[in-house]
């Protein structure tokens, strides 16, 4: 799942058309607290989750039990100051002895497993998107699908959809990439000018505004970058944060431009080396859950459970969690095989909640993922999934994985899909990029300019997306479960949905995601019609008798997280 493509494309075009002027217009904005997702509207005037209020008024003095949350993502900075103390450690594994001590099939999986790993310890960074893989698979299987396939068949309809998605947009994407490459060149030029002038490796809007010079090159670079950074969200990001997002967008655009020219599986075959079309081939990957590409997973993990009250960085939502790192999401679309095995790994190793901040529009082996979801359901594990960032209606546009099984089985009751809401300070109360759906999105959660941990040991930054909203919900679920450990996965889902609340300032109509000014009732964007609310969830949980009172076999075995 790509977080930033829609937003970055818009801000880049704005900057490209209006950048090189010598006048800079600064607009005053209300400063939004960096931890706004934990706050509440009554005291902080933001659409937060009432988490800090819950700690003060409901949880003070109460004891909790530890909860294991698996993060299936791009990897995690296991050395980060705010995360290293809350990582799950496999109790049955002896570090570094090269043996599978616990017999789970994975050697030295101390903090989790990397399903993108190679035998030499390296990892797959970039992979193709699923539509491109399917396009090539059809061509390789049928030669000329247009003449080979029955025009009344389901496969022919799928092939036509793939052609529409790959061939025509491919030529358009090449032109877009060409024009955006020019912008990237300007960004790089301005970066060099400003870093040299400021003698800094990074800079913010505030630092740019302080520049006073008659050097026209510096002034042009300052105004260009100022407009660019102020277009990134409610709170101006630093240049390094923007650059990371922009480079990821350009990489994704390049892959799409080359989709019909470069075979989509060559990186996978060269690096991972598994039989990616064989779900029984499970012994692949390595134990490097950190790697060099863990921005996304590190950010997600901090949202859920960054160590609270430790005097550094940020506070996560939940205060008694161990994060299990399961690396399965590259730059590009995740593979169904990796997702299925990642879910099973997490379940088998004690995860009680699994965060899945990824998704795609095609799932050629949905049955593999479905079986893994059923397995998690049977074992009582809650799955929290990001709704997607296309401003689309999930009731009419496919988004995978999802709780609907291909074999017609009853819908999974352990699966929550999360949309992204804003902080309430701007005109967009709901994130304009967020997917929605009265049937297929369960609730919303803060997902715009969420400040969290990023790779680098002691670094932090903001990011937006339903990928940030999902871990907010996963964190709330873990918090509730840690204080009410007898609740089942389906009870947790019920509690989170039932306790979700309307927009706190009374706003009924919001801008419909994916549109400019079309209005829609916020209540019609999801099943619950509300935003996750920690305070109300805990109140409701206190009234419900847990279904797992007699089922203690899946309880997490670990010491609680030390406070302070």
UniProtKB/TrEMBL annotation:
<feature type="signal peptide">
    <location>
        <begin position="1"/>
        <end position="26"/>
    </location>
</feature>
<keyword id="KW-0645">Protease</keyword>
<dbReference type="InterPro" id="IPR000209">
    <property type="entry name" value="Peptidase_S8/S53_dom"/>
</dbReference>
<keyword id="KW-0378">Hydrolase</keyword>
<dbReference type="InterPro" id="IPR023828">
    <property type="entry name" value="Peptidase_S8_Ser-AS"/>
</dbReference>
<dbReference type="InterPro" id="IPR036852">
    <property type="entry name" value="Peptidase_S8/S53_dom_sf"/>
</dbReference>
<dbReference type="GO" id="GO:0006508">
    <property type="term" value="P:proteolysis"/>
</dbReference>
<dbReference type="GO" id="GO:0004252">
    <property type="term" value="F:serine-type endopeptidase activity"/>
</dbReference>
<feature type="domain" description="Peptidase S8/S53">
    <location>
        <begin position="67"/>
        <end position="504"/>
    </location>
</feature>
<dbReference type="InterPro" id="IPR034080">
    <property type="entry name" value="Protease_P7-like_dom"/>
</dbReference>
<comment type="similarity">
    <text>Belongs to the peptidase S8 family.</text>
</comment>
<keyword id="KW-0720">Serine protease</keyword>
<dbReference type="InterPro" id="IPR022398">
    <property type="entry name" value="Peptidase_S8_His-AS"/>
</dbReference>
<keyword id="KW-0732">Signal</keyword>
<dbReference type="InterPro" id="IPR023827">
    <property type="entry name" value="Peptidase_S8_Asp-AS"/>
</dbReference>
<dbReference type="Pfam" id="PF00082">
    <property type="entry name" value="Peptidase_S8"/>
</dbReference>
<dbReference type="InterPro" id="IPR051048">
    <property type="entry name" value="Peptidase_S8/S53_subtilisin"/>
</dbReference>
<dbReference type="InterPro" id="IPR015500">
    <property type="entry name" value="Peptidase_S8_subtilisin-rel"/>
</dbReference>
<feature type="active site" description="Charge relay system">
    <location>
        <position position="467"/>
    </location>
</feature>
<feature type="active site" description="Charge relay system">
    <location>
        <position position="296"/>
    </location>
</feature>
<feature type="active site" description="Charge relay system">
    <location>
        <position position="73"/>
    </location>
</feature>
<protein>
    <submittedName>
        <fullName>S8 family serine peptidase</fullName>
    </submittedName>
</protein>
